[in-house]
Amino acid sequence: MQQSGIGVIGLNPNNAIFIDENTFLSQFDPSGIVDGVIIYVDSLKNINYVTNELKALFPMDQVLNLSTLISSINQFFTVLELFLAFIAGISFIIIGIWMFNAMMINMLQRTREFGIMRAVGFSGRSIPLLLIIEAAIIAIIDSVIGTALLVAITSAFPSPSSFMDAAFRGLGGMARLPHPSCRP
Length: 184
Prior knowledge:
The protein is mostly helical. Helix content is about 60%, strand content about 0%.
């Protein structure tokens, strides 16, 4: 076989032995010589059936199902995303308080300017509206800059799913050992 650098679940395809079903069944020794077996299922619909049959045939052994492993990894990333969303929410609240504080200081420092604006003819409602528009413009500019930085930083790093796809794609044809009793 062609060398591959991808090893999953403790199996390196460069150091593994690949045999056909009949040779495997004739050489199989339940005393513990075999450390692991990878069974290739011809259809994704049969994964759970084959897993259940293997658990029934070998109750003392651990049977791993890649779909279960992938769902566990997906669950981990979902929890991680929720945690990061929580952190982002707290950051959003802190930024809101910071903007409020900055705008209050801005308002206190510009009291003379507001007095001149009122003397020139600005209404009492237009000055708070001016402050709200200034805050909105600052927030929009900061959001655009923050989004651009986020996109630049995240595009520099590969996604975890690309690593998983490469790892599990290499497992697809490693071994084809469907036992006749495991077929639906």
